[in-house]
Write a structure and sequence with these properties.
Layout: E1 2-8, E2 11-16, E3 20-25, E4 39-45, E5 48-54, H1 55-60, E6 71-75, E7 85-89, E8 92-97, E9 104-105, E10 116-122, E11 125-130, H2 132-135, H3 138-147
Parallel strand pairs: 2-11, 5-7
Antiparallel strand pairs: 1-2, 1-8, 3-6, 4-5, 6-7, 9-10, 10-11
Length: 161
């Protein structure tokens, strides 16, 4: 299985490449007033409004550092829906192939770590596998079900990806 690796607070995490629609640079985001703290903002992706979730806040309680290696990973959390979500992460490092037979359960079942349900090992240590279908909080899922209008104008917008 091909995995996209990234680091948060020095820990390695991964997403299945099959879950990744596109990897885009960290662009300027539009603030969304009164949004939960883990919503970094909204981005314009080819004329579509995309909510961007700061994965660092969800995992370790602090915002992503703006680094050269920080990226927005576009995913489609509900495959039958046409909506995207951006995951803001830092230190996107590489893609690697991991044999699915090497995955093991975390052995810990808590609400805080509910979206990390597998661990893989390689010569550099542990890689926590993020389960996209379990990642998003209910309020983000509600936004994806039409609470935010899906199209915006891209005329004169320099932050279109």
């Amino acid at each position: 299985m091909m995995m996209l690796l990234f680091k948060i607070d020095g820990e390695r995490y991964s997403l299945s490449v099959a879950d990744v629609t596109e990897l885009v640079p960290y662009v300027s985001l539009q603030n969304l007033p009164k949004a939960p703290g883990y919503i970094a903002g909204l981005m314009n992706y080819r004329g579509n409004i995309v909510p961007v979730v700061d994965l660092s806040i969800l995992i370790c309680g602090r915002p992503v550092k703006r680094l050269m290696s920080s990226r927005i990973i576009l995913i489609q959390p509900v495959k039958k829906e046409s909506r995207f979500v951006g995951l803001l992460v830092e230190n996107v490092t590489e893609t690697i192939k991991i044999d699915e037979a090497t995955f093991t359960d975390t052995g810990v079942f808590s609400e805080a770590g509910a979206f990390v349900d597998k661990i893989a090992m390689d010569s550099n240590g542990m890689i926590q596998v993020v389960n996209v279908s379990k990642l998003l909080p209910d309020d983000v899922k509600n936004m994806l079900q039409g609470k935010i209008s899906g199209k915006i104008s891209t005329e004169g917008d320099t932050n279109v990806v």
